[in-house]
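From the shared-data thread, chain only:
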Amino acid sequence: MIIFRNVSKKYRNGMLALKNLSLYIPEGSITFITGHSGAGKTTMLRLIALNEIATSGQVFVDNQDLAELWGRGVSRYRRNVGFVFQEHRLLADRTVERNVALPLVVAGMPEHKCRSRVRAALDLVSLKHLAESYPDMLSVGEQQRVGIARAMVGRPDLILADEPTGNLDPDLADEVMRIFFRLQEHETTVVIATHDYRHLNNPAAGCLMLDRGQLVVDEPL
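Structure, as tokens:
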């Protein structure tokens, strides 16, 4: 579960990205974060990812106050978080299989274990047949699905996605969203920042709307 308690984030340039934000995201849920550009969606994800620290207030993930983590504790925490970006950020000189394996390699997992994990992740996104292909051989939708496989290959408890369908047409966006909902079978918590309002009324997901760094809509599961 994720809890924000009176969280504010002010950047050095004086911009107040989040203002006294309090919210709760249940464990194993899918939650959409929406709002206009600059509403604070990406800042919220960056605080959960520990890429930023709150100026005031507290952020808890699984009862851990993130402000208390430092050094190796931060590294251990981040290994349990998967990230999906609007721009998939695949390495052009590595095959699909090696791109997906990258988080496991960084974590020091033996190669024989990496291979089985990677194949399972690619199977979930229906791309196992493209394991030996390179990113420039794939469609935009396939590249984004590789990015999702890379995010989930370490079997994290939490996946954060920042505008994952922003560059996709509606049919491909629907396909990507179906993959995220499939992760519920693995009891993974998924938080998605999105402008794609077509998906926000899904009864299987929660929806939080931000406006100028404050919560204006909270649709609980």
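The beta strands are 2-10, 16-25, 30-34, 56-61, 64-65, 81-85, 158-162, 189-193, 206-211, 214-219.
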